[in-house]
Known about the structure:
- It contains 4 helices and no strands.
Amino acid sequence: MSIYQIMKDAIIETVNKENQNKQLSQKIIAWLDALISGNEEIGDKDASLRHLELIYAEVNLHDDEETEED
């Protein structure tokens, strides 16, 4: 199994384990694909910021659990 497939599987497994939206793993993998293909560069601050904002928008911080405990 290639390192790429191992990383994809780990991303999907972690997102599922943390009860995150499937879109989160898809966006992380899409960015990884863009980096691997050379269409994006990690040193491109604007592109990296755009991807990180898209990824962060998918993250559920479980705020609903914290408010129940208060």
